[in-house]
Amino acid sequence: MPELPEVEVVKKSLESQINNLTIKSIKINDGNLRYKVKKQDFIKVIGLKIIKIKRRSKYLLFFLNNNFTVIVHLGMTGKFFILDKKKLKKKTSFYYNLKDYNQKHDRIIFIFNNGIQLIYNDVRKFGFLKVISVSDITDNKHLKLLGPEPFSKLYNIKYFKEYLFGKKRTIKDILMDQKFLAGLGNIYVNEILFLSNIKPNKKVNKLRNHEIKKIITNTKKVLKKAIILGGSSIKNFVNSSGIQGNFQQQFNVYGKKGEKCSNSDCSGKVKKIVISNRASFFCPKCQKL
Questions:
Q1: How far apart are CA 163 and CA 180, in angstroms?
Q2: pLDDT beneath 50: ranges in the chain
Q3: In the chain, where the domains are located
Q4: What H or E segment, with its residue span, contains residue 119?
Q5: Does the domain made of 157-282 have the CATH classification 1.10.8.50?
Q6: Candidates 56, 58, 91, 172; catalytic one
Q7: Which fold has domain 4-136?
Q8: Neighbours of 162 (CB within 10 A)
C-alpha cells in the first residue's frame, strides 16, 4: 500500500497535469470498488473545474468549484494513467510498466475539456473514489479521526507524550496508528526506528524524552528524503516521469532479513519479527534501546 511519500508524489504529479482542467464527462466502467461508486454523485461534478489537489494522510483530495471534492484512496493497487490528446498513454504517478498495463482494470475515467483523460486503474479494487461536499470534509469518516501530519508543528514532543500517557503499546504500533500520526505505514516506520536506535517492540511507556525527540526528527528526515527520491517502488510505484522511485535502494532494514547492518561499524545482521501481524525489521545491535 502506498504510504505518505508515494501519495505526496502522486499529488505533485497530478497537480502539474490536470489542475485547472474542467471535467467534460465521466465514464464508470466498474463501480464495485471498496465502496460502491455512486453514479448520481459523480454526475454532479461534470462541468466542474479542478481548482486544487491536496493530500491528507494517504488520501488525495480533488477540490472542485461549486463546493465539491473528490476524495481518493489508492488502496493496494490503485493507480492513475493519463491519456493525452493524441490518445497516447503516459506514464503517470502510479503504474506498473506500461507493457504490463491492462485496460480491463480501468474502473473510472475522467474526460477533460481539452481532451485529456485521467484513468483510475485498480487491479484488486481496494481503493475508492467518493464525491463529498467541501463543508463535509471535517466530519468525513475517513478524515476526521486522523492524527497530525508528520511535517506539522502539532507533531511535537508535548503531543507525543500526552498521547502516550497511560498506554503500553509498542512504538511500532503507535507510529502506524493513523489516529496518532497520519500517513505512516510499515516501510517507513521500520526505517525511522532504525535511525532512532529503538527496537520496534519497545513499549511506549518506557520511552525517554531524548528517544521521542529522535523519533520525531527521524520521521521528518525519512519522509522528506523519500519524497525527494520519488517514493518507494516495492511493487508498483513510479513517478510521473517514468523513473522508478529509488528510496527502496537505500533501505537500511526493511526487507533485509539476514543481511549485514548498513552501519559500517556494526557487525550485526538484520532480524525479522512480527508485531501485530506485520513484519518488523531491525538490527539487534544498533537497536538495543
A1: 7
A2: 93-96, 232-242
A3: 4-136, 157-282
A4: strand 117-122
A5: yes
A6: 58
A7: N-terminal domain of MutM-like DNA repair proteins (3.20.190)
A8: 8
Q: What is the pLDDT of residue 71?
A: 98
Q: What sign does the CA torsion over 235, 239, 244, 245 have?
A: negative
Give yes or no: 2 in active site. Answer: yes
Looking at residue 243, the DSSP 8-state letter turns out to be P
Q: Which of 3, 1, 55 is nearest to 189 (CA)?
A: 3
pLDDT of residue 227: 85
Q: Closest Cα to residue 266, out of 197, 205, 214?
A: 197
Catalytic residue list contains 208: no
Say which of 49, 269, 278, 285 is annotated catalytic: 278
15 carries an active-site annotation = no
What is the distance between the alpha carbons of residues 85 and 49, in angstroms, rounded to a whole number?
18
> Residue 59 and residue 68: Cα distance in Å, rounded?
16
Q: 481496494: which residue's cell?
A: 126
Q: Is 278 a catalytic residue?
A: yes
Q: What is the pTM of this model?
A: 0.89
Other Cβ atoms within 10 Å of 158 Cβ, number: 8
The letter for the amino acid at 51 is I
